[in-house]
Amino acid sequence: MFQPETAGHLMSRRVATLPADGMAGEWRHRLHENEWEVVDPVFVTDDGGRFLGAMHLVTLYDASEDRNIASLMRTDWPRVTPETDQEAIATLARENDVSDVPVVDAEGKLLGCVTALRLLDVIWREHVEDMQRFTGTMKATRTARHALEDSPFSRFARRLPWLLVGLGGSIAATSIMAGFETELSANVEIAFFIPALVYLADAIGTQTEAVAVRGLSLSHKPLWAIFGGELATGLLLGLALGALSFLLIWAGFGDARLGLGVALSLVAAGGAASSVGLVFPWILSRMGVDPAFGSGPVATIVQDVLSLIVYFAVMAAFVVKTM
Asked: Which one of 54, 146, 235, 322 is separated from 184 by 20 to 30 angstroms, measured CA to CA?
């Protein structure tokens, strides 16, 4: 009926109420006639059930027998509507020094109250969420808890499909290697740099995946707003690694063309890896799938395949023909 994390969703309905025109002596003896969820504070209403104020139970019991209840209540007791957000309720309770906050409808009729225990739970959850945001981790969701708390068989069933996709990608990568057998046979030295290229591209992609998976809980920006920045970052990383590789290969192998081919491949692979590392977690998140399961195995093999395609394309078009 009410949205989660609102007063209407959190409130208790069986709350102790007293009529404003009643006498303290009479009504404090009648409170035990019902089973209340909340009996302290006691809420005061008029004949139509509209909330007028509240008092703590000790105030009622300390009053004389003939004391009018309306004279005992605190009329400035804060109140909220069913749609009020839970964090706003906690703030209101703290600012007004009350433990329980009544919930009223548009006409002012008392519907229930958000208890101190509920507010304590709200404060704890909000604190945990704020700390997770501060440290850059995702919100504690049911899916995330299942990832570590489910039985081994359940975790196996969740993870295996993604690894099977990775196995298919590995077969594709092997096929790509076999397709460039001629180039590898003619220039065996270009095979020396494949492990390094694949590793560096994976490292760039893994960094992006970690940032993306973490950032999904922090940023509300659309994908296009952050894609350009991450792509540029990947290209810059590839450029820096490529420049260093060029110098090392030129010095070690005495072949500037080979070094330049590896450097260009690293630049392209860095841009591709960072793009895949960002887009894959985003796609999985939009599909309602935990990115932690699929982004690693699938994005890694996609990055590997793209890196190999880029590397062999550069070598075939630039290095092999001129060597």
From this structure: 235
